[in-house]
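Sequence in, structure out.
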Amino acid sequence: MAEQKQQQRISGDRLQAFIASAFEAVDVPRDDAKTIAQLMAQADINGSEGHGVFRLPQYVRRIKGKAINVRPNIRVERELAAMALVHGDNGMGHLVMKFAAEKAIEKAKTAGVAWVGARWSNHAGPASLYATMPLAHNMIGLYMAVGSANHLPPWGGLDMLLSTNPIAVAVPAGDEPAVILDMATTVAAYGKVKTKAQRGEMMPEGWMMDRTGNPLTDPKRANEGFLLPIGGYKGYGLALVIGMLAGNLNAAAMGRDVIDFNNDDTSETNTGHAIVAINIEAFQDLKEFKSGMDMLIRDIRNSQRLPNVDRIRLPGDGTHVARADREKNGVPIPEALLAALDQLAGDLKIAKLPR
């Protein structure tokens, strides 16, 4: 609580306007800048702090380094009734994945289920941004991606050949909030490591390990070790197959071809993503599905608890709480991040983020 009181609270509208102005300052077309800004601000509002405005200085550096195409021709390369392959033309990942998600939703309306892959994209923020897009159309959303830097070796190895390779699933309900699973296949996403480093905080044991097998808790020494997979070898296997589906299947970067966008501001990444939209009405009556979801959610939430457990949580509970708080009170911006954004504003000769 004490830490939160020290943080500035910035409204989502102000945050979005600042992000858009920064992108316009580096020649991103106004409409595209607004789209990217809306998605990035939404990430912060949803509580995905490692994937919102925190990433803005990095995105700007990569645009200045000519690593990202600010006027991409995002297009469908291959297409059948229930699938498409999108070429992102090295555009901002937010633009590519919004295009891909909308294509998947459009196709699922008639095909029932649609799988859309994307290649020649870039980092696109949190997975849940895109998995939740089908919810507005009474569809289930599934998103996968190859992470934008390798921080995970094969189980038992040391060579960094895999990334955090996230997966997100969003399932609508009726009166209950949607179930939204958004997770990296590592114990912690690397964005959380970066935010810890910026704030001068230590990591808990279990996030990373050094090359001798000992716990690594100083985020500023992250390059001396690697992230740990969820569930041991099972998490490694999950990271591998997600990478195959979002990377290899789309002829996107995977394994040793992945560019570390944290330390490279000039190389194209050819990031791969996949989005699946599932039209619930193709499977059953929508009202019956939502009623069944409500019943399941309530059964889980009201189930017997272990001693000292205050409540049973479901995936997405944290997002719903964060959104309600931040839409009302603004997004908390740590002092270190605020200073970085002020410096960025000075470099770009734009107005600072309003307090």
